[in-house]
Design a protein that fits this description.
Blueprint (H helix, E strand, L loop, with lengths): L3 H9 L6 E2 L3 E2 L1 E2 L10 H11 L10 H21 L5 E5 L2 H16 L3 E5 L4 H14 L2 E5 L10 H7 L4 E7 L11 H11 L4 E5 L11 H4 L3 E4 L11 E5 L1 H5 L20 H21 L5 H25 L13 E3 L11 E6 L4 H10 L2 E2 L1 E4 L5 H4 L6 E6 L6 H15 L1
Parallel strand pairs: 3-13, 5-6, 5-7, 7-8, 8-9
Antiparallel strand pairs: 1-2, 4-10, 9-10, 11-12, 12-15, 14-15
Helix pairs in contact: 2-10, 3-10, 4-5, 6-7, 10-11, 11-14
Length: 414
């Protein structure tokens, strides 16, 4: 488990853990919008920004960059628990989802393309766009408004043998609920065993527990700035079946290459820093003797710590009432939802969500308003809400920070 002593060590490894460079001291509960950055990532970014050499040249510096990329790809495969396939870097997580979906839909150009109403537009819009371009049916699996998630049974009910591409959101950045990825994938495969399954893991990645081998999917995409790295790139694991369809390539270039143009070695190196961090954390909380084992131990410890944080936020601590006890508060997905991953989203009867966010910010507590727009309307519109307050935590947050949040919330609601 993450003890108080270990938590101090963890927090020391992140930049701006308790203060904003522009606004001063603050509590950071906006991790779903972008997690804190590892200090090692900051150092690595600066180091590689200064290197003028490119990969593929006949000199020692170029070879060193090639070796660094190879190491990062190996680290990425361990992070995803990939048995085959390839780890690639792109412009962003959204861009990679669009590219994987585009390849899967246009190269098959037949059947039904499936996604769910819980999904972020990064995957849902990609499916809608390319299904429309190819004249294919885009079928939507309905999510459960009360639980804030979509179930394997819902996917099973929507499945037919002609589904050729299916997308799955691993964790919702609005409700905070994690989907039963393995169960959903099994439901898809039981009816359409050859369907290409592409996963949006952007929100899930910081909470640990990615295992593409166990899930049996064909692609998995993350955004490193949401898992302790920096902006400016995305990372995906692409399975061999999806590569077999033939992604866009330079004429005469390597036939199975997904990456177009010269990639930033620093992007790869900073992702390797993230994997190294999971490796280090796993060694502090477990006894695994393999790198993958330590990554899994880290994920379990992260999940357990974040559950303590969300339980405290919902049920209170000491003489402070939790959100479940505060008057007029409604929590999306329900109070005791075992699918919750480090995030609580709510609205209040008497105070608008943007006003709550502003008042929390004035007290040095950073949260975020989710509006019923193209990002969150799929969640909020069925609930009849124009906006909600999203409080998103990571394993470097503390129960003391949650207590401060509850104290301020009590004052706001008085």
């Amino acid at each position: 488990m993450i003890t108080e002593t270990l938590l101090k060590d963890i927090r020391s490894r992140f930049a701006h853990v308790d203060s904003c460079p522009f606004e001063g001291e603050r509590i950071f509960f906006e991790n779903a919008g972008g997690a804190l950055t590892l200090g090692s990532v900051v150092e690595t970014s600066a180091r590689f920004a200064a290197i003028p050499d490119n990969q593929g040249r006949a000199n020692g510096a170029s070879q060193a960059l090639v070796d660094i990329i190879a190491r990062a790809k190996t680290a990425g495969a361990e992070f995803f628990n990939a048995q085959g396939g390839q780890v690639i870097v792109g412009e962003s997580g959204t861009e990679l989802l669009f590219r994987l979906v585009r390849t899967a839909v246009t190269r098959q150009a037949r059947g039904v393309v499936l996604s769910s109403t819980i999904e972020h537009p990064a995957s849902r819009s990609a499916v809608a766009h390319w299904a429309g371009v190819m004249g294919l049916e885009h079928r939507l699996v309905p999510h459960d408004d009360d639980l804030g998630l979509v179930t394997p049974d819902a996917y099973a009910a929507a499945m037919t043998p002609d589904v050729t591409v299916a997308t799955i959101l691993h964790t919702s950045p609005v409700t905070g609920m994690g989907m039963d990825l393995n169960g959903i994938a099994r439901a898809i495969r039981s009816i359409a065993p050859e369907a290409m399954i592409i996963v949006d893991g952007i929100q899930h990645a910081s909470h640990g527990g990615i295992d593409v081998a166990a899930a049996g999917v064909d692609g998995y995409v993350i955004s490193p700035y949401k898992v302790f790295s920096r902006h400016g790139y995305g990372v995906a694991w692409v399975g061999d079946r999806l590569t077999d369809l033939g992604p866009e390539q330079l004429a005469g270039g390597p036939e199975r290459n997904w990456e177009l143009g010269t990639r930033d070695t620093g992007a790869y190196a900073t992702f390797a820093d993230v994997v190294d961090y999971f490796d280090w954390l796993g060694a502090q909380v477990g006894y695994a003797d393999t790198r993958r084992g330590r990554i899994e131990d880290a994920g379990r410890a992260i999940h357990a710590h974040e559950k303590r944080l969300t339980d405290t936020m919902l049920h209170g601590t000491g003489n402070l009432k939790g959100l479940a006890e505060l008057p007029g508060i409604h929590v999306i997905g329900g109070i005791d939802n075992p699918a919750r991953e480090g995030l609580v989203c709510f609205w209040a009867d008497r105070i608008a969500a943007p006003d709550i966010v502003d008042r929390l910010n004035a007290e040095g507590i950073r949260t975020h308003t989710r509006k019923a727009d193209h990002y969150s309307g799929n969640i909020l519109d069925p609930l009849g809400q124009e906006a909600a307050v999203r409080v998103s935590m990571c394993h470097y947050n503390s129960e003391a920070e949650v207590a401060r949040f509850l104290s301020v919330m009590a004052d706001i609601l008085e």
